[in-house]
Design goal:
Blueprint: H1 5-30, H2 34-48, H3 51-62, H4 67-93
Helix pairs in contact: 1-2, 1-3
C-alpha cells in the first residue's frame, strides 16, 4: 500500500511547520545548546530530505516535466541555498542573534 504523493507532501509540510516553530522557541526563548542544536539539526534533515524528491514527483504528476525544466529547478534550488547561507553568514558576522533562524 502506497501513500499518494500529495498526502505525504502535506504531512511533511506540516511537520516542517511544527519544526520551524520549535526552532523559533529554542532560538528566541530557551537558547541553543550543543545537544539541542544536534537534535534539531537532525530533525531538520529528516523533515527536509524527502521534500525535494516528493516535490519533483508532484510536479511530474501535474505537469509534463522535461529535462530543461528539471535543470532550471535544480539550478534554482542550488543557487537559493548558496545565497541563503551567504546572507545568514553575513548576519552572524554583524552580530545579529536571530540569524540562526535562516539556517
Amino acid at each position: 500500500m502506497f501513500i499518494p504523493v500529495y498526502i505525504f507532501l502535506s504531512v511533511i509540510w506540516f511537520a516542517g511547520l511544527l519544526l520551524a516553530i520549535v526552532w523559533m522557541i529554542y532560538v528566541c526563548i530557551l537558547g541553543l545548546t550543543a545537544t539541542s542544536l544536534f537534535v534539531l539539526g537532525s530533525l531538520t534533515g529528516l523533515i527536509i530530505s524527502p521534500m525535494y524528491p516528493l516535490s519533483v514527483g508532484w510536479f511530474n504528476q501535474k505537469l509534463n516535466v522535461v529535462p530543461p525544466l528539471l535543470a532550471m529547478l535544480f539550478c534554482g534550488s542550488a543557487l537559493g541555498s548558496l545565497i541563503l547561507q551567504k546572507v545568514a553568514g553575513r548576519l552572524f558576522s554583524y552580530g545579529y542573534w536571530y540569524a540562526a533562524l535562516f539556517l
